[in-house]
Sequence to fold (277 residues):
Amino acid sequence: MNIALIGYGKMGRLIEQEALNRGHHITVVVDPYAADERTQSGIPLLRLFPDQAGEENSKGLATADAAIEFTRPDKTVENITALCRWKLPVVTGTTGWYDRLEEVTKLVTDSGASLLWSSNFSLGVNLFYRIAAYAAAVMDPFQEYDVGGLETHHNKKADSPSGTAKTLVEQVLARMTRKTQAVWDALNRPPRPGELHFSSLRIGSVPGIHSLFFDSPADTIEITHTARNREGFALGAIQAAEWLVSYTGPGQEALCPRPGVFTMDDVLKDILGPAQE
Fold:
C-alpha cells in the first residue's frame, strides 16, 4: 500500500517506521511545520498540498492509496477537505475537532470519499471500550456503585480531556440509565446522582492511562488501560488504513476503498463478527 503521511511529529515518525516495517511505501509527507526537506527514511517533505495533479510535487499524492493524518485540531478539517479533493481515503487520529464531525461527514459523503476517524487507534484501547461498555451495563442496576474515571497523559498533550476519555465516557453513558451526563471540570461541590465525574492529569512523558472506577462503600472495581508506548497507536492507524482500502463491494472484483465514514468500532465489528455485537 502506498501511504501519504499528513503530519510529521512524533506520531508521524512512528507511522513511517511501522509502515515500512509492514512492507508499505510512504509516497509523500505533508507538514507545514517540518524543518527538514526529507524524512528520516528519505521521503520528500511538502509544506503545502498541491492543488492539482499536474502541479510540481504532486506525484506523491497522486500515487497514494490512502492518507494517514496526525496533525492539530485546527488543521484537521482543512486537511480532510484537501484529501477529499484528491479522492484519497483518509485515516485521522487527530482529536479535538469533533464539534465539526457532522460537517466533515457531509463533505466526505457528498464527495464520495472515505474517512476513518478514531480518538485512539490502539487495538487494546478499542477492546477496552467494549469491556468498559459491558461492565457499565452489568453495573447499572447496582445503585451502591458510583462511577467515575481518570485519564493521565504527557504534559505536551494539546487537548484535555483526551479524545479517548470522551469516547470511553460516551460508551459508558450509552449503557447506563442512572448516569446521564459527564462532568470534566473541577467540582467544587458533590457530584449530582446523574453525573459521571472524569478527571484529567497532565504530567511528564506518560503515553496514556485511562481508568474507569465502580466504587461502593464495600469495594472498588477498577478497569484500566495503560499504554507503554506510542507504537501501538501507530500500528493501529496503519491497520485501519489497510482495512479502509481493502473492500470488495457488490459486483466488484478488485479491491477499492470503502465509501463513507467509519471508526475503529467498524474495524472491530468486521474482525469479531456478528457473534460479538
User: Anything to note?
Assistant: The chain has a mean pLDDT of 90. The radius of gyration is 20 Å. The chain has eight helices and twelve strands.
